[in-house]
């Protein structure tokens, strides 16, 4: 499962409560562009509309260069449909209505020949939580560095 893109900003700014895997509906040139790593998840989020369909909003997929001549009206930040089971959509819709919870994309990766997106139910961190997680990461890094010497 090669990882094609990661939303590092979302992982830094929020605490992941649950993760769910979903399919992503893309056109042919968009699939090639994503597999080439031309996707940016920064600032994107998941929205569920009134018809119980999940949409990826704000993700930037650059135009695939060889197909760019054919696509004159290509919109790189258009909303893209996500493929989820009905019970998963209902569950996410209910949880996202709770105070402080949001659904965000964490990463895009391949699974066989398919493109998958990892969604997470997240809760925002406070400034002191961010400092704590940075401090913990530095301590773990220092422990690993010292353990290598032995």
Detail the topology: elements first, then pairings.
Layout: E1 3-6, H1 8-13, E2 14-24, H2 28-35, E3 39-40, E4 45-48, E5 54-57, E6 60-61, E7 80-83, H3 86-96, E8 101-111, E9 114-124, H4 127-149
Antiparallel strand pairs: 1-8, 2-7, 2-9, 3-6, 4-5, 5-7, 8-9
Describe the fold and architecture.
- By secondary structure, the protein is α+β, with helices and mostly antiparallel strands.
- It has a single domain, classed as Beta Barrel (Small Protein B, Chain: A), CATH 2.40.280.10.
- Helices cover 32% and strands 35% of the residues.
- It is built from four helices and nine strands; from the N terminus they run βαβαβββββαββα.
- The chain has a seven-stranded antiparallel beta sheet.
- A hairpin with a 2-residue loop joins β8 and β9.
- The longest helix is centred in the last third of the chain and has 23 residues.
- The chain is globular.
- The relative contact order is 0.24.
- The mean pLDDT is 86.
Index terms:
single chain, 150 residues, alpha+beta, seven-stranded antiparallel beta sheet, two-stranded antiparallel sheet, 9 strands, 35% strand, globular
């Amino acid at each position: 499962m090669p990882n094609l893109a990661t939303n590092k900003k979302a992982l830094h700014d929020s605490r992941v409560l649950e993760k769910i895997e979903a399919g992503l509906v893309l056109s042919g040139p968009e699939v090639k562009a994503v597999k080439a790593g031309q996707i940016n998840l920064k600032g994107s989020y998941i929205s569920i509309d009134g018809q119980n369909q999940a949409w990826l909003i704000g993700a930037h997929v650059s135009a695939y260069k060889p197909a760019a001549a054919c696509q004159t009206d290509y919109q790189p930040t258009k909303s893209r449909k996500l493929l989820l089971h009905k019970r998963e959509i209902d569950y996410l819709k209910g949880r996202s209505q709770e105070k402080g919870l949001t659904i965000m994309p964490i990463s895009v990766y391949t699974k066989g020949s398919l493109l998958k997106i990892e969604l997470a139910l997240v809760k925002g961190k406070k400034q002191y939580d961010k400092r704590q997680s940075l401090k913990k990461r530095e301590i773990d890094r220092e422990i690993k560095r010292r353990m290598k010497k032995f």
